[in-house]
Specification:
The chain is of the alpha/beta class. 43% of the residues lie in helices and 15% in strands. It contains 19 helices and 15 strands. The chain has a six-stranded parallel β-sheet with strand order 5-4-6-7-9-8, sandwiched between helices. It has a five-stranded mixed β-sheet with strand order 11-13-12-14-15. It is globular, with a radius of gyration of 27 Å. The N and C termini lie far apart (69 Å).
Length: 461
């Protein structure tokens, strides 16, 4: 069956015989026009006379008696942790490694002398350093976006950011799980590896886990800044590889679009509800859900500049209104949360929102302010980035003296009690969604200005 799909298959490999395995690998390496699959036969607990082939050799120690029996069965006459000198010598690669490293260094020195600019670029990329003009160019791009408002979907804003940043970062290596036209992760400089081996974009097919695992490997290799994309709901298929990226603290950017019940008629199987919260509580993961094109570009900037773990960028299908900002507010976006709208003096109510729901918060703010209420709106595109700020900044955004707080996000509600307190209110999801147009779903589940205002007034009584 594998051969029918274009694979070269090496069958019946004895997985306990090193010579047979080596021969199979050499055979596979000789086939250069198709992938190879080695089918190795092994027995769990091989060598154990009483536990081989059973689950007893998997989840618990063999035990002292069975270890002794296994040593006898295998003809192993040496004590625990004793390595015979001849076997040690076969595996000792220190001298061979030194020679290969020296040869590589000599070769690269010659290359550096012949092509200094290319050698410097190779060194920069392998170190994971950004170009010298990166900070200035990124700052200028963000400022231009703020000065030229556009009401577009954040997935489109993400593509615009890729267009700007891709021209600065030749180390970008993107890809999507068969959803590039929907994720909008290709830009004008994208070239498919299927068309050109020197390309910078991989069409992974419908294989979210495989895609994520591959980008993890690319990040570990170095020299590239990988990003990959699918719908937010489909992070479920990639979960283990996403978790491994966070565990290994590797530099990887995961793009997830269609971020809420706002994708509409595809129904609850495609509508993410609990995924945002699960990403946020994953150690070492940075998660951003921007509210407009400006926050989207800054989210990309944050992920590009981060070196101690992966970053997930959560983008909308529907258009989002751009928010006005001062220079100070623009700078504070990078801090994960900031005051977007405010009142004179200390607020009596704080509205916290992310993504498409920031518009709702602003609408409620406008209505409540007109009624004489003192209200603040906090846009919080990244909870983890905000949590890393110093106590003084966090207090300036969310003063502890203000207990009346409402969080608004089209994701699972429970996560937000961390910021609103047990006496606060959350406009969020407590069930799975339904299949209907986005506007109808948002109204059905309470994502309206009227409902936010009602929740706020209930707290202010």
């Amino acid at each position: 069956r594998f051969e029918a799909y274009g694979w070269h298959v090496v069958r019946n490999v004895d997985g306990h015989d090193s010579d047979t395995i080596k021969a199979a690998i050499e055979e596979a390496r000789s086939v250069t026009d198709k992938p190879s699959l080695l089918m190795c036969k092994t027995v769990i607990g091989f060598g154990s006379p009483n536990k081989a082939g059973t689950h007893d050799s998997h989840g618990a120690p063999l035990g002292e008696a069975e270890v002794a029996a296994t040593r006898e069965q295998l003809g192993w006459k040496y004590a625990a942790f004793e390595i015979p000198q001849d076997i040690y010598a076969q595996w000792d690669a220190k001298e061979a490694g030194k020679a290969k490293e020296a040869a590589w260094n000599d070769k690269f020195a010659a290359y550096e002398q012949a092509f200094p600019a290319l050698a410097a670029e190779f060194t920069r990329r392998m170190k994971g350093e950004l170009p010298a003009n990166w900070q200035a160019e990124a700052k200028q791009f963000v400022a231009q976006l703020q000065a030229n408002p556009a009401n577009i979907a954040s997935r489109k804003a993400s593509q615009n950011a890729l267009e700007a940043f891709g021209k600065l970062l030749p180390e970008f290596l993107g890809g999507s799980a068969d959803l590039a036209p929907s994720n909008l992760t290709m830009w004008s400089g994208s070239t498919s590896l299927g068309d050109d081996p020197a390309g910078n974009y991989i069409h992974y097919g419908v294989r979210e886990f495989g895609m994520t695992a591959i980008t993890n490997g690319i990040a570990l290799h170095g020299g590239f800044l990988p990003y990959s994309a699918t719908f937010l709901m489909f992070v479920e298929y990639a979960r283990n590889a996403v978790r491994m990226a966070a565990l290994m603290k590797i530099r990887n950017v995961f793009v997830y679009t269609h971020d809420s019940i706002g994708l509409g008629e595809d129904g609850p199987t495609h509508q993410p509800v609990e995924q945002l919260a699960s990403l946020r509580v994953t150690p070492n993961m940075s998660t951003w859900r921007p509210c407009d094109q400006v926050e989207s570009a800054i989210a990309w900037q944050y992920g590009i500049e981060r070196h101690d773990g992966p970053t997930t960028l959560i983008f909308s299908r529907q258009n989002l209104a751009q928010q006005p900002r001062s220079t100070e507010q623009l700078a504070n976006v990078y801090r994960g949360a900031y005051v977007l709208k405010d009142c004179d003096g200390t607020p009596e109510l704080i509205l916290i929102a992310t993504g498409s729901e920031v518009e709702l918060a602003v609408g409620a703010y406008t209505q409540l302010t007109a009624e004489g209420r003192k209200v603040r709106v906090v846009s919080m595109p990244s909870t983890d980035a905000f949590d890393k700020q110093d106590a003084a900044y966090r207090e300036s955004v969310l003063p502890s003296s203000v207990s009346a707080r409402v969080a608004i996000e089209a994701g699972i509600a429970d996560y937000w009690y961390k910021y609103v307190g047990l006496n606060g209110a959350v406009v969020g999801m407590t069930t799975f969604g339904e299949s209907a147009p986005a506007e109808q779903l948002f109204s059905e589940f309470g994502f309206t200005v009227d409902n936010v205002v009602a929740k706020a007034k209930a707290l202010l009584k």
